[in-house]
Write a structure and sequence with these properties.
The complex is a heterodimer of chains A (379) and B (382).
Chain A: E1 8-11, H1 17-27, E2 31-36, E3 53-54, E4 57-58, H2 59-64, E5 69-72, H3 78-90, E6 93-96, H4 102-105, H5 110-116, E7 121-126, H6 141-148, H7 168-191, E8 195-200, H8 201-208, H9 210-218, E9 241-244, E10 249-252, H10 257-264, H11 277-280, H12 282-293, H13 298-305, E11 312-314, H14 318-323, H15 325-328, E12 333-337, E13 343-347, E14 352-353, H16 371-378
Parallel strand pairs in A: 1-2, 1-6, 2-5, 6-7, 7-8
Antiparallel strand pairs in A: 3-4, 9-10, 10-11, 12-13
Helix pairs in contact in A: 1-7, 6-8, 7-8
Chain B: E1 8-11, H1 17-27, E2 31-36, E3 53-54, E4 57-58, H2 59-65, E5 69-72, H3 78-90, E6 93-96, H4 102-106, H5 110-116, E7 121-126, H6 141-147, H7 168-191, E8 195-200, H8 201-208, H9 210-218, E9 241-244, E10 249-252, H10 257-264, H11 275-280, H12 282-293, H13 298-306, E11 312-314, H14 318-322, H15 325-328, E12 333-337, E13 343-347, E14 352-353, H16 371-377
Parallel strand pairs in B: 1-2, 1-6, 2-5, 6-7, 7-8
Antiparallel strand pairs in B: 3-4, 9-10, 10-11, 12-13
Helix pairs in contact in B: 1-7, 7-8
Classes of the chains: A alpha/beta (379), B alpha/beta (382).
């Protein structure tokens, strides 16, 4: 039995933050019904990346919304709204990511919904919380990254701000919402009572940076200083970074510099005997390491460092990774199928339960694909 | 009442991924007891950033282990192991991140532990799963990022592979661990049965890239190509990116280039009427914008664009952020007090329950700080 079997989720959310939360819950066994507006549906359907079109809609929509049903309804139309309220009255969980104020106007805020279904677990994601000067700002991933300070951490010191090249704020806030909803379901299983769970993307990005924000409070507000070269963490000493070799790249995590000097036969590194120097003189150490590692292949260095238990790795791209036995053994990919038999490949849920990987063959739904069956079943 | 009140978690995890999950569970109301080796405690106490230590443990340790207790036990000592088994018999959840095989040697593998407590949620974190050629590789954040392909997404085209400059593999994997544990508890409420939950840094990093990997797998396989300058997402069209202004930087998210050209009165943009060009010609479009924005301040541009609902924001560093009203109104920080009276100014949980922010005054424990108290409470041998 999948852990969330028999849990019914009504998902009013769009784009990525809410939908990636409900994808996890779907994979864990919940039934997820996406409520989508007429004509366009979830705006993510037409949000293309690198102009890729998969069976008429965006590849990211296909990735995020597999294993879900679609119920098309206009929340501003009374008849449709009545239907959605009927669905909500039977649901265990509701998820939305409207901007603060909008959900009240739609009459689907927690206080209203609670009257209809007192035991529901009600989950919501906003961009910046529900108060303060930013509450009306669009809750978009890159904007949140820019505001959150996270762009000061990646890349080398001579670069401007460097965003994380994925929708981190969306995915992390979705992950936090899933945690809160699941905790709410644990409580509901014990006491029968529901609750409201709220997260916002800015706080999720701050939580991601809890180490460095705490450091900032602790060291009296010292500015973030990335290393001049090979930066992989602005607050860590040498050798932490990615280094070019004669045929690729090698990453090195924490390790004792003199030991590295001996193993790599790089006498320049032997002068750094003091633990503190690995942080205080990290720029010059990294430069010396970078010059040295260029002289031979990634395989050569790994063959010396790995047996000596130095934390290091080959830097791979997907092409090489997907051909590697270390990847294949994970069985991380799956093929899913839409109702018109269009098939596509995607990743599976990353959580293993009782020794088994979780796969689901159901692809993403067409807009309103399940209106008839849902109407028959619930309305 | 917090949702996880009454849930007892034993945390054998060290470093970051597992303990970050324990912290989330603790803030949601669970009681989390770290099981640490005597004297030195878990390895994470010695892993510091900026070489900062508080009360002999790293500031990082204090950040990720507040709101927990510590019980010291040597798992190689039969008497200690017996006590730990007694604790396990009464626990709801246990987490560990030993490399595959270690718990079997100690005698706390799932099969053994399940016999002691069939309702237990047993959760483990590894670097690369439990089989295959990489099982013995160290499960460390930067290494998992490097292997997963992630380093080809951040930075500009001519940059070398660029890591995300914080422990994203640990943290993201921690969210999956938490989700798996909680899903296990949901099922247990119905069936009375426990569960084995397994996650790994590498699988979490692949899940993190699920949108772009899906795109890669279903198109004539083209590896990601970052934009030439100001890259913020290798797969998105202009104007998505970072731009310097006369006094700082701004970011622009997705949106119509035609509308942007009109709002900014930037005629050069109007030649790109076909939206397909916004991806195909993004380098030259971003180059035009870069030079255009250089003439005025960030505030000037943000004002102009926000008024027209263009998705943009000013880039802030920690100083500017923490002084901003938009940050202060969140009350996201809190101060915890250590046993020795020292204080750590840190952050709170990002999850709110019934509109309550989840604060906790409890600081991270010293090694074995609660051993005696827990021994009494659970009737363990001294």
């Amino acid at each position: 039995m999948k852990p969330l079997q028999d849990v019914l989720i009504i998902d009013l959310s769009q784009y990525l933050s809410g939908p990636c939360c409900t994808l996890k819950l779907a994979d864990l066994g919940a039934r997820v019904i996406k409520v989508e507006k007429p004509e366009t549906g979830d705006s993510c359907r037409s949000m293309y990346i690198s102009n890729v079109n998969m069976n008429g809609e965006s590849s990211i929509f296909r990735a995020i919304n597999r294993n879900k049903e679609s119920f098309c309804a206009d929340l501003k139309n009374n008849l449709d709204k009545k239907k959605v309220l009927q669905l909500i009255s039977k649901a265990d969980v509701l998820v939305h990511n409207f901007r603060p104020g909008v959900i009240q106007r739609l009459g689907l805020d927690y206080d209203t919904v609670k009257v209809l279904n007192p035991n529901i677990v009600y989950g919501e994601i906003s961009g910046y919380g529900t108060e303060g000067p930013w509450k009306k700002k669009p809750g978009q991933d890159l904007l949140i990254q820019a505001i959150s300070g996270v762009t000061t951490l990646s890349g080398n010191a001579n670069k401007g701000p460097v965003p994380l090249g994925l929708a981190m704020a969306d995915m992390l806030s979705g992950g936090h919402l899933a945690q809160g909803i699941l905790a709410g379901l644990v409580q509901k299983g014990k006491t029968g009572k529901g609750c409201k769970v709220s997260v916002n993307m800015l706080e999720s990005m701050l939580d991601l940076q809890f180490e460095t924000v705490t450091t900032f409070y602790h060291d009296g507000g010292q500015p973030t200083q990335r290393t001049e070269s090979n930066n992989a963490h602005a607050y860590l000493g040498a050798p932490y970074g990615i280094y070019e070799t004669s045929n690729g790249f090698l990453s090195l995590a924490m390790g004792a510099i003199p030991k590295l000097g001996e193993l790599l036969d790089c006498p320049d590194l032997l002068e750094y005997q003091e633990f503190n120097s690995w942080y205080d003189q990290r720029d010059e150490i990294k430069q010396k390491l970078a010059n040295h590692l260029k002289t031979n292949t990634t395989e050569h260095w790994l063959s010396i460092l790995e047996p000596a238990d130095i934390w290091c790795a080959d830097v791979m791209n997907w092409e090489r990774l997907f051909e590697h036995d270390g990847f294949k053994v994970l069985d991380m990919l799956q093929t899913v199928e839409m109702s018109d038999n269009y098939q596509y490949q995607t990743t599976r849920c990353p959580i293993k339960i009782d020794g088994k990987v979780i796969k689901n063959t159901k692809g993403s739904p067409f807009l309103g694909e399940n209106n008839d069956s849902i109407t028959t079943e619930f309305l | 009442m917090l949702p996880l009140e009454g849930i007892l978690v034993l945390e054998f995890c060290q470093f970051m991924a597992g303990p970050s999950a324990g912290l989330k569970l603790a803030d949601l109301g669970a009681r989390v007891i770290k099981i640490e080796r005597p004297i030195h405690g878990e390895g994470g106490r010695q892993i510091a950033i900026k070489n900062l230590f508080v009360d002999n443990s790293s500031l990082v340790f204090h950040t990720v282990n507040r709101n927990k207790e510590s019980y010291a036990a040597n798992l190689k000592d039969p008497e200690d192991l017996e006590n730990v088994k007694k604790l396990i018999a009464q626990a709801d959840v246990m987490t560990h991140n030993f490399r595959p095989g270690v718990m079997e040697k100690i005698g706390l593998d799932y099969t053994t532990v399940k016999a002691i407590n069939p309702a237990l949620i047993y959760a483990s974190v590894t670097g690369y799963g439990t089989e295959g050629p990489w099982v013995k590789k160290p499960g460390q954040d930067l290494l998992a990022q490097s292997v997963s392909g992630l380093t080809h997404l951040t930075g500009d085209r001519n940059d070398t592979p660029t890591a995300m400059g914080l422990a994203v593999a640990d943290i993201y994997c921690g969210t999956h661990l938490t989700q798996g544990i909680l899903a296990g508890l949901v099922r247990r409420n119905k069936t009375g049965k426990g569960a084995l939950i397994e996650v790994s840094l590498l699988e979490s990093m692949l899940d993190f890239q699920f949108e772009v990997i899906t795109t890669y797998l279903n198109e004539p396989k083209a590896l990601p190509e970052r934009t030439k300058e100001g890259n913020a997402h290798a797969y998105l069209s202009a104007p998505y990116g970072v731009y310097p202004t006369s006094d700082g930087h701004i970011v622009l998210a997705m949106g119509s280039l035609i509308k942007l050209g009109e709002v900014l009165e930037c005629e050069q943009l109007l030649q790109y009427q076909d939206p397909d060009l916004w991806f195909e010609n993004r380098d030259e479009i971003m180059f035009i914008l870069k030079h255009f924005f250089a003439s005025h301040s960030s505030e000037h541009w943000i004002k102009k664009m926000e008024a027209e609902d263009i998705w943009c924001a000013e880039v802030l560093d920690y100083k500017n952020l923490l002084e901003h009203e938009g940050y202060k109104v969140l009350s996201f920080d809190q101060v915890v007090t250590l046993t020795n009276g020292e204080k750590v100014h840190t952050t709170r949980s990002p999850i709110q329950i019934n509109d309550q922010k989840l604060f906790s005054k409890t600081a991270a424990p010293r090694v074995g700080e609660h051993t005696e108290q827990i021994s009494k409470e659970f009737n363990l041998m001294k």
